[in-house]
Amino acid sequence: MSASLAAAAPASLPVTSERLKKKRTRHMKEQVIEALLFFAACVSVFTTVAILYILVSESLVFFEHVPLFDFLTDTQWTPLFADAHYGILPLLSGTLTVAGVGLLVAIPLGTIIAIYLSEFASTRVRETVKPFLELLEGIPTIVYGYFALLFVTPLLQMIFPELPGFNMLSAGLVIGVMIVPYISSVAEDAMRAVPMALREASYATGATRFQTAIKVVTPSAISGIAAAYILGVSRAVGETMVVAVAAGMQPKLTFDPTEGAGTITAYIVQVALGDLPHGEIGYQTIFAAGLVLVLLTLLFNILGYWLRRKFREAY
Amino acid sequence: MDNHSANLSRIRTVIRRAKRWDMIFGLTGLLAMMLCVLTLVALFAQMAIDGVPRLSWDFLTSFPSRRPGQAGILSAWVGTVLVMLVTVTAAVPFGVAAGVYLEEYARKNWVTDIIEINVTNLAGVPSIIYGLLALGIFVYGFGFGQSILSAGLTLALLILPVIIVSTREAIRAIPQAVREAAYACGCTTWQLVRDHIVPYSGAGILTGVIIGMARAIGETAPIITIGALTFIAFLPPAPFAGEPPAGLFDWLFAPFTVMPIQMFNWVSRPDPNFHYNAAAAGFILVFMTLAMNGLAIWLRYRLRRNIKW
């Protein structure tokens, strides 16, 4: 034993420095790994920066050719014709009309379903319906486009015989049904987060379920419900395939849902299908249109953020 | 006494009226739910009626054609599989790494705040905007062209937030004691992450990946924007096929089409015979996404039941 000690003693010094070295490499390895993981986390920031950079830089080239004033006030959008007009208003009117019709369907239905699931339905119903709603969120939008063009439009034409084959009404209705699950599941989560004590207090004063739901739970969850609506608005405004298939692709300055019209997203699809040469004005129009779309969704998101702040309830 | 009973009956009326509202709303709720469900059932029923007769082995193994009766989805499903392969390879490492970073490493400072706000906001950006981004960066900036690689990377960016969020949720469910035990034994953060955090949250991460993939399979708009062709009658080159310089990864740069684009192409044609093809393609597409989402939901429910920390 003493022999082994004696053998170890002279070697003890280098062993310590060996351990220090090991510790240092270990530390360095940790730092490298952390840097790599940090880089991965930054990809989302790069994506945002890249989106803004691409949209703005291509739009700047576009606005060298087209004055901003014309872009905002011209009532025609015909960038691919010989007599080119670059007025965003027709695309905006189409986008807002379709989204408006969609929200008229989705907001009442989504809210009612959310209140029903959170306050009225039994646990078993809720546990069956919620996964079902989640399933519906995953259905490809092109399938809804097929549905709008080949099922809803013929159905509507039975009621309104003069309805054209491409119209914003059927596109809007289908978008509405499509975003109901988004709205109802987010709103239901918000309502479920309302503490049970509030409901119990309400029931204790003799309120019914309906009264509790409308006068206690909904106002308490209003910031979450607003968030759900904003999510719905973003989806409706940015929805592409349904409008590209069912609304027609003719930009027209109209707010009448029984007409066909083009939206921002449908226009981008139309141009992308047409194989435009890189670097021409027609190619840059889609970036200018895209920039408007992003600003529009950004506007709604800021509005939603503001609403949430203003109406946030602290329990 | 008379006054008392009149009061009582008035109170009873109030109660009855309140209860009637309860019932009316309950029925409205059920009706609203039925309306949505029935609409969607109608959608599936119509698609199945139109599409299922077209489903056959030939449909899966034929290229698209000008004659609707002979057209198939061979190039579309091969394209979808290859694009998904690129998407998974790109999105999973970055998404999981970002999630791990934000949960296990990140200090609470403004950099972390910016990253978190970014991830939330990206989930709200319309998918077609990702298409414009990819057109500017991947197709023309990096010169990948209108290829499988560009499409896969685009979809990877698109589903990155989904994977990051589900990774974070899965990691957050791991009790603090696990971390404390690992650190007490002298583990470094990376050892903790590699040996404990990632394996324990693996199933939750997988759920997020499946949901992201189901979403990516159905995305049409960004892929149309980068210029996927709508009519392709050939397959991407197999690895090492063709002339000697041909390599393992030639297929990455091949032109392609995917299922939703093939369906879009058929829906947009005036000839109703093509609509049956669209219905058949849509049927397969919906079946795939529903199966994937169902798997993810089942996985999540099973996990919640089985884990006892």
From TrEMBL, chain A:
Location(s), subcellular: Cell inner membrane; Cell membrane
Topology relative to the membrane: Multi-pass membrane protein
GO cellular component terms attached to this protein's record: plasma membrane
Annotated transmembrane regions: 32-56, 96-117, 138-160, 166-191, 212-231, 286-307
Organism whose genome encodes this protein: Thauera chlorobenzoica
InterPro entries listed in its UniProt record: MetI-like (IPR000515), MetI-like_sf (IPR035906), Phosphate_PstC (IPR011864)
GO BP annotations, alphabetical order: phosphate ion transport
Pfam families per record: BPD_transp_1 (PF00528)
UniProt family annotation: Belongs to the binding-protein-dependent transport system permease family. CysTW subfamily.
Function: Part of the binding-protein-dependent transport system for phosphate; probably responsible for the translocation of the substrate across the membrane.
GO molecular function, one term: phosphate transmembrane transporter activity
NCBIfam families (UniProt xref): phosphate_pstC (TIGR02138)
Full protein name: Phosphate transport system permease protein
Main location: membrane
Keyword set, alphabetical order: Cell inner membrane, Cell membrane, Membrane, Phosphate transport, Transmembrane, Transmembrane helix, Transport
From TrEMBL, chain B:
Listed GO CC annotations: plasma membrane
GO terms of biological process kind: phosphate ion transmembrane transport
Topology of the protein relative to the lipid bilayer: Multi-pass membrane protein
GO molecular function, one term: phosphate transmembrane transporter activity
UniProt KW Transmembrane helix keyword: yes
InterPro entries with a match to the protein in the record: MetI-like, MetI-like_sf, Phosphate_PstA
Cell compartment(s), UniProt: Cell inner membrane; Cell membrane
Membrane-crossing residue ranges in chain numbering: 21-49, 69-102, 122-142, 148-166, 223-241, 279-299
Keywords assigned by UniProt, alphabetized: Cell membrane, Membrane, Transmembrane, Transmembrane helix, Transport
PANTHER family: PHOSPHATE TRANSPORT SYSTEM PERMEASE PROTEIN PSTA, PHOSPHATE TRANSPORT SYSTEM PERMEASE PROTEIN PSTA-RELATED
Protein family: Belongs to the binding-protein-dependent transport system permease family. CysTW subfamily.
The protein, known as: Phosphate transport system permease protein PstA
